[in-house]
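To: structure desk
From: M.T.
Subject: fold request, one chain
Message: Could you run this one when you get a chance? Sequence is below, nothing fancy, just the single chain.
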Amino acid sequence: MRKARGAGWLIPGEDRNLDGLESPRPMEDAVPTPMIRPMEAQKPGPRTTSRWPADRVAAVESLWGPGYRAPGGAEETLRLTKPLGLTSNSTLILLGGGLGGPAFAVSHSFRAWVTCLEADPMLRAAAEERRPVLDLNKRITIQGWEREKPDFKPRSANHALALEALRGVPPLPVISSLAGALRPQGQVVMTELVAEQPAPAHDHEFGAWCRLEDRLPVLPRVSDISRALERQKFDVRVVEDISDRHVSQTLEGWRAAVKAMEAGVRPAAAAAAAFVNEAELWLLRLRLMRRLDLKLMRWHALSP
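Reply: Done. Structure tokens follow.
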């Protein structure tokens, strides 16, 4: 099994300020301190409540591109998908499909059949709205799923791509159901945020971030996911730390969005507030990655 690790937290070309006025610095200086609003941090927020009103969807897409709720866009989606060797005859389960952008990129590039699974009903609705325009090949199905009770259709796909789909639920039930959904010789690519040590119970920033991201305050360890894959008889070929790339994509997306806003029409107050909130949420994520040594990992595994 090959293990890859980034070169560290020094990010070439990343500045403390997004206007690029300062020279590159290590990540600990590159990420400004986000402001956690007291009312936001104290909201208990049931997990069934959608966190995706229209203003937030618009803000997210202004940061990461149409159809995307996370950095990297189509380029990152296709980089993750390429090892699967998809063709026009392939079927793919895409877990954590969000606004539908990753599914559209895969279908457009490989003409594969994609079942896009998203747990949040408002994200699913937004993805379905975009499907008639973006799904030109008409090979995408958008469906819901329950993270706490995964129940994927057995032997329904050749391969699977899971994009930070766990959000605090134990990995084994999800991976077990995903394994049952694959046909023989299937492959899985997963990305997930991990932590080798649990966050302190009194950590205010981490608790606020989990509530704002609608995730349970538990991150798996690398070994939790690797062992879950191995228990389902997967041959784990790659375990890779992609944190550095993720951080760079986040800061670059923010920088590009700010430049686009400066060059275009000034956004309305509600849209500007949603943009600032979303940018601060991602800055908080980067700050926690540094402070708590959180990592974004990639797995590539082959079924028997």
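Reply (cont.): The longest helix spans residues 269-291. Let me know if you need anything else for the meeting.
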